[in-house]
Amino acid sequence: MWALLAVSLLLGELKAVGQTELSVLWFPVYRATLYSDDGHYGGIEPPLLLQLEYRRDISRQALLEHTKQEWLKLGIDKRFDVQPWIEQLQLLWPQISKGDQLVFHFGETQSSFYYNQRQLGHIDDANFGAAFAAIWLDEGASYPRHRLELIGAK
Q1: How many domains is the chain partitioned into structurally?
Q2: pLDDT less than 50: residues of the chain
Q3: Is residue 109 exposed (0-12), middle (13-18) or buried (19+ Cβ within 10 Å)?
Q4: Are the CB atoms for 127 and 41 separated by under 8 Å?
Q5: Where is the Chalcone isomerase domain (predicted)?
Q6: CATH of the domain at 73
Q7: What share of the chain is helix, strand, coil (3-state, %, to 5)?
Q8: β-pairing, 111-115 with 27-36?
Q9: Residue 14 belongs to what domain range?
Q10: What is the pLDDT of residue 109?
């Protein structure tokens, strides 16, 4: 019950910054909404919440591989050892089905994941939250137009 309440409380405390819909080769992937404490994007700093509503089935392995690829592209693997994070995510993340929701909350002391309103768990590494959020929010992110929409700049 608390996990169900936790996402609702987080969304009640945070305000939407922006929203985008990602499609790859005309296939819808997800709709993403970014939230912050004041509804404005001030950089990759907590608190931030990223809500992903999936439009297709995606395997856990595909999510993990894509996450690792994005970190490699952004050079995050040169600053941090990402393998322990990948191993933790492998334990946390489920298989994704069309219609599922995955929520990432980047807090002051930890980063938490929720799946369909239920808490999956958290990662207690001060560097993880910013590294994970960078996949969508860094200026070098793979989908620049979507980044701009998420941060409310477009």
Answers
A1: 1
A2: 1-5
A3: exposed
A4: no
A5: 24-139
A6: 3.50.70.10
A7: 40, 30, 30
A8: unpaired
A9: 2-150
A10: 84
